[in-house]
Amino acid sequence: MAIIGKLIKAGIDLSAKLQSTEENPQELQENQLRELLSKAKDTAFGKYHGFEEILNSDDLVKNFQKEVPIFKYEQMHAQWWSKQERFPDITWPGKPDFFARSSGTTGKSSKRIPITKEFLATMKSVGTSQLNALHEFDFPETLFESEILMLSSSANLEKNNQGFEEGEISGINVSNFPDWYDIFYRPGKEIAAISDWDERVDAIAEQAPEWNIGAIAGIPSWVLLMLKRIIEKHQLKHIHEIWPNFQVYASGGVAFETYREDFDAICGKPITVLDTYLASEGFIAYTAMPGTMNMKLALNHGYFFEFIPFDKRGVDETGELLSDPLVLGIGEVETGQEYVLLLSSCAGAWRYVIGDVIRFESMDPPQIKITGRTKFFLNVVGSQLSEEKMDKAILELAEKHDSTFNEYMVAAIKNEAGEYIHQWILVSEIQANGLAEELDELLKAANKNYGVARSKALKDIQVQVISKEQYTDFLGTTNKKGGQTKTPKVMKEEKMKSLLEFIAQA
């Protein structure tokens, strides 16, 4: 493996040096849109919305935005995607080979996102760009001599009666790995195909001593559980006792900061944490520079992006899109401003609302940070709490108690008097005494609108603390236990009451 590691590192360094200077982001994006429209102009969607005329117009982007409405999942699925199981050429040429069941945290049921061969190629293309970006980090050759552990959802896909295969996007990606990936990919397709989460992790823990892991990729909460399972099984002080070359962790799915201390605690030496924005709808961005968790937007990989300001120009007070929001292109956005992201892609998504809120941290190159979900905007009574502000308060509370709160859930619910309160559930091992008052003060300091709400319609804040075991058991009852499940931070009242009932019964 040593000679392979040297060759891989040399190849990455050479590729980085040979890369030409990137074009203007606005030109890159217009070229992506033109290519997407050209390929889809003869589909039912393309004919209905006049893609041919848009391509021949003087202002491609402006006419695209004029002729094609903004779609949420429910609209896109009902009007177009649901027809793709029976008919070809609906929103993209041919039929999709797969449907990705979204493992997201919002909505009552899983979304089914079409996955085409071209789309899978874009995922690999962005992954290659991320690999080439490792040149900037100057990692030692030992990293490239080792293996990568990807904690995906199950690669055992389900076949429906129309001949399509379904699963979560990470499982679809793993199932499409070429055989030569077995040289460095762990846990391997056989273990990855185990459907039961606990059985899969037990199999990983059993095989762990035989592997030389240099990098791990996956959602923090589940990766952390897996690493703790390995440490416990083999009676280790830290994970580096078994994997001394473990140097890189590629996080994704949720904000990493609430997990940082717990990762530090199970490592024997520092690791480099990279962020990735990999959703069922695409591999959208990745950390490309050392010293930051900001992510470079994938502007030249088969995606066209649009941005709606996450303020009164684009959304109402509950975070819902306005009927006619301001929509901006990559050449019109500003650093420091939050935006709702729209995506058009070669999976047949058109002006599609992913549901994420991002903020531009730089424009040369365009780098972003995910600040939350539109549905994680807690504003039932004017509190205006974004996920980022809630994360900040939780981190400060954890620091104050010299502890950690990896996961938390919150909902605005009505008490017996019919008044709104915020019900918080924190996942930790400390006692709940006094936490409500402390968290209340931290939130007031983080957001003046919250303080105003607390003096008026928001009558109280209540906090319960549950263990990690209780939390994962609850996810098991909702079929949300697995390597790609994201933490549902802001819950609907009904969901929170179900969780409170589960805690009471436990």
Tell me the layout of helices and strands.
Elements: H1 2-18, H2 25-40, H3 44-48, H4 51-55, H5 60-67, H6 73-79, E1 98-101, E2 112-115, H7 117-133, H8 141-144, E3 147-150, E4 158-159, E5 165-167, H9 169-175, E6 185-186, H10 189-192, H11 197-207, E7 213-217, H12 220-233, E8 248-252, H13 260-265, E9 272-279, E10 282-286, E11 295-297, E12 303-309, E13 338-345, E14 352-363, E15 366-373, H14 387-400, E16 408-414, E17 420-427, H15 435-446, H16 448-454, E18 458-466, H17 468-477, H18 493-505
Parallel strand pairs: 1-5, 3-6, 3-7, 7-8, 8-9, 17-18
Antiparallel strand pairs: 1-2, 4-5, 9-10, 10-11, 11-15, 12-13, 13-14, 14-15, 16-17
What can you see in these coordinates?
This protein is of the alpha/beta class and 506 residues long. The chain has three domains: 2-21 and 119-286, no CATH class; 25-80 and 303-375, no CATH class; 378-505, 2-Layer Sandwich (GMP Synthetase, Chain A, domain 3), CATH 3.30.300. The chain has helices at residues 2-18, 25-40, 44-48, 51-55, 60-67, 73-79, 117-133, 141-144, 169-175, 189-192, 197-207, 220-233, 260-265, 387-400, 435-446, 448-454, 468-477, 493-505, and strands at residues 98-101, 112-115, 147-150, 158-159, 165-167, 185-186, 213-217, 248-252, 272-279, 282-286, 295-297, 303-309, 338-345, 352-363, 366-373, 408-414, 420-427, 458-466. An eleven-stranded mixed beta sheet has the order 6-3-7-8-9-10-11-15-14-13-12. Residues 1-8 and 104-108 have low confidence and may be disordered. InterPro entries: GH3, GH3_C, GH3_M. Residues 299-373 form the GH3 middle domain. Residues 390-494 form the GH3 C-terminal domain.
